Amino acid sequence: ETVNSTDQQYNAFIDPDERYLLLGVFGRDDSFGGTDYYVVFRNADDTWSVPLNLGAHINRPRGSEWSPYVSPDGQYFFFMSTRTAPVDALPDSVTAAELDALHLRPENGNPDVYWVDAGFLDSLRPAPR
Fold first, then answer.
1. pLDDT tens figures, 67-88
2. Hey, how many other C-beta atoms are within 10 angstroms of the C-beta on 14?
3. Would the pLDDT of 20 be above 90?
């Protein structure tokens, strides 16, 4: 029940040591909007913690996130996001060549893969109960 906290969870990634589960979740009250990434930690009594939103550095109001993955060495968190650049960062008009360049760059609303140091995941783990 804690893992399946809404009717829409996606693309779960389980830590190889089964310490945590990463998943995209749609419809939680603490969402930044759309689908956000959450972590659920395995407790010593073999239950799961409540889902914790991975925060604004990972989840964006104008993006959807799917397909979390941590590298085999545990060093990097890879994720897909449909981020968009802030509206004020876009020009009022563009040429065809500039439009093509905008289409090819990250944060254009199409899915892109990002990665960050995965060390922040352990800092989210709740204190033992």
1. 899 999 999 999 998 887 766 6
2. 14
3. yes
CA distances (Å), origin 88, targets 48, 77, 84 = 41, 29, 11
Residue 32 in contact with residue 59, Cβ under 8 Å? yes
Q: Which residue has the tokens 């563009």?
A: 94
With 0-12 / 13-18 / 19 or more C-beta atoms within 10 angstroms meaning exposed / middle / buried, residue 97 is exposed
Buried b (16+ CB within 10 A) or exposed e, 31-70: bbebbbbbbbbbeeeeeebebbbbeeebbbebbbbbbbbb
SS (H, E, C) 55-72: CCCCCCCCCCEEEEEECC
**Alpha-carbon span 66 to 12, nearest angstrom:** 9
CA distances from 113 to 49, 65, 77, 105 (A): 27, 10, 10, 12
Say if pTM beats, i.e. exceeds, 0.70. Answer: yes
